[in-house]
From TrEMBL:
GO terms for molecular function: DNA binding; DNA-binding transcription factor activity. It comes from Elysia marginata. It comes from the Eukaryota. This is LysR family transcriptional regulator. PROSITE patterns: HTH_LYSR. The keyword tRNA-binding does not apply. InterPro entries: LysR-type_TF, LysR_HTH_N, LysR_subst-bd, WH-like_DNA-bd_sf, WH_DNA-bd_sf, YidZ_PBP2. Belongs to the LysR transcriptional regulatory family.
Length: 322
């Protein structure tokens, strides 16, 4: 059947056909479909014209399907089931799903926000699989193209589109996961610790290690310093947080990092944390996805699990530091 013929085809005819098959009575089929006796008679007439067959013949107890009607039944039932499946909202069953997800995240989010998440997902949905990638300069485009389904990123709470959420494409949706702030990490025994004051002048006298952020080595921090005609002396730039932490731990370079990441670093590395010695907007971790997944039941389920998990990670002690 050609597309133009399908366009002129009335779906109600197939629904009426199944009702007549099941009820074997024009009056009962009319009652079931909330139609008049006249309307069901006209529907049957159109069916007979469409299939060039009587389809139903009158017998003493109602209607009897013809061999042609019996032959049509299986295909029409299958077509209606497939159509219902296509137009009805998908019901996601995590315990039975084989869904595969593609995620991306900035490096600092894995240890501070996503620890334990993947084990939880595996318990709830053992057939679900994931590919997880580092957040890269092209990841925004990949989100828009559907090659990445979900991302965890960090944006400063600022109107500056380069660093804030206003710079995100309008087709992307997001939920705030946690708020954070910048702090300074340095090795134990760092010379700056012997200074009587830890202020902006002391901070700027130090050498710094910087992490690329979305392909940039220039953060809002540096933009704000520029506005004051000031600049950090960044001598090393690296692609991830742990590389910067290692350099900081084994040199006199200062690493300006997010507080939640710093809290994890203090547990396992010989570093000391000091506050950033000037006022700067906070940073927000965001869960980001494309609008095409707004009503995807599996996607909604995973987003809810991530939001739920991050919320459980934000214990009162950590929340007070935000």
């Amino acid at each position: 059947m050609t597309l133009d013929r399908l366009f002129r085809f009335d779906l109600k005819l197939l629904v009426g056909f199944i009702a007549l098959l099941e009820e074997r009575s024009a009056s009962r089929a009319a009652l079931r479909l909330h139609l008049s006796q006249s309307a069901i008679s006209k529907l049957l007439g159109r069916l007979r014209e469409l299939f060039d067959d009587p389809l139903f013949v009158r017998v003493t107890h109602g209607l009897e399907p013809t061999p042609r009607a019996i032959q049509l039944e299986g295909g029409i039932r299958l077509a209606l089931r497939q159509l219902m499946s296509a137009v009805e909202p998908e019901i996601f069953s995590p315990e039975h799903s084989q869904r595969h997800f593609v995620l991306a995240s900035i490096g600092s989010a894995y240890p501070v926000l996503l620890t334990g998440l993947f084990g939880r997902i595996q318990t709830l949905a053992p057939g679900v699989t994931m590919n997880c990638y580092d957040w890269q300069p092209d990841s925004i485009n990949q989100l828009q193209q559907g090659r990445i389904e979900l991302a965890v990123i960090a944006k400063e709470v600022t109107d500056n589109p380069t660093y804030g959420t206003s710079g995100l494409p309008r087709s992307l949706r997001y939920r705030e996961l946690a708020e954070d702030r910048n702090v300074c990490l340095m090795r134990k025994g760092h010379p700056a610790l012997s200074d009587t004051t830890w202020d902006l002048a002391t901070y700027l006298r130090q050498l710094h290690v910087q992490v690329y952020c979305e392909g940039r080595d220039y953060w809002l921090l540096d933009y704000r310093l520029d506005q004051m005609n000031l600049r950090r002396n960044i001598t090393v730039r690296v692609p991830d947080f742990y590389a910067a932490l290692s350099i900081c731990e084994h040199s006199d370079l200062i690493f300006t990092a997010l507080n939640l990441f710093a809290g994890e670093a203090l547990k396992h590395h010989a570093v000391v944390q000091l506050p950033l010695p000037f006022s700067l907007e906070p940073v927000t971790y965001l869960l980001v996805w494309h609008e095409r997944y707004d009503n995807d039941s599996a996607h909604i389920w995973l987003r809810e699990r991530i939001i739920e998990h991050v919320g459980s990670q934000m214990v009162p002690e950590a929340s007070k530091q935000l």
